[in-house]
TrEMBL record:
The lineage of its organism: Bacteria, Pseudomonadati, Bacteroidota, Flavobacteriia, Flavobacteriales. InterPro entries: Glyco_trans_2-like (IPR001173), Nucleotide-diphossugar_trans (IPR029044). Residues 9-136 form the Glycosyltransferase 2-like domain. Keywords: Transferase. Transmembrane segments: none annotated. The keyword Lipid biosynthesis does not apply. This is Glycosyl transferase family 2.
Amino acid sequence: MSNNNPIVSVLMPVYNGEKYLKEAIDSVLKQTYNDFEFIIINDGSSDQTETIILSYNDSRIKYVKNKINLGLIKTLNCGIELARGKYIARMDADDIAMLDRFEKQINKFISHSEIQMVNCKCLLLNEKGDKYRKNRTNITVNYQAIKYISIFESMIVHPGIMIETSIMKQFKYRDEPNTAYVEDFELWNRLFANNIRCYTIEEPLIFYRINSESITNTKGHEQKERIKRITQSILKQYDVIIDNKILDLILEDFHHCNYKLLKKMDSDISNFFISLLNKDLVSKAGYNDMVMWKNFKLLFVSIKSLKKISFLNKLEVSAFFIIKMIPRINFKMINRLCN
């Protein structure tokens, strides 16, 4: 390993992360690929975070301590400035990287010289550390499809991404009030708008922890509203208008779900994707992946909404499922729902 010029800079911010921090650090230090520096930034923690970090005697760890709590975006951008590797690998302080994660991501950069980002799948953990399922909505599509699907929902596992450092230094996370809680969603769309290409590895390479203190659980409403504003802003550039109630369904707010809305979701997104194909903005392969995502989302929404809606709407959604979705269901869709 070259200590002066590591290939990878692992970037992990942490704030009061004592509960899961050791697991996260150990999973990085035990990687099969070891040409990396490990930048751990303590964002003004008041618990035992610093004690845990300082208990390690590993030259790859570069410990940085913010004097005060700067917040996630400023801390991430600070880490980007410090990064010396060719690639940045993101890591969160409550997640666990599989031991061959870096090796497999580096190999994809070597075998696919046209890409600048390597995404991966994840397995979800609960607060007790129990693996309970794959992330079913994170389907694998090609780089063209990712660009346009990401307008509606993130296809990127943020703490599992590896990306060229030069790109992150150029773009960084946008530190503005309207990007708080959605800094990754905004960044990915900005990168894709600038033709950055992303490859997704089909297998899970990280355990992603779902906990009660996550942004999704504590700031979920604000997060979804900001995602919708970003989505509508991007769609406006294509002269496309999609009802916010449809965006709610994509973001798993099912309370307004009914036959008419599902039919409109199917039609409006289909028309948008077809317009991209007709303008040669996406290849036929990319378009097919986008249609697969749309059908998967319709199937997912149809099934998941049944627990959240009135009896009358249940009948309508069931009718949509029978009339519109059953003819489209294939083994791949069933497999993604069941695994």
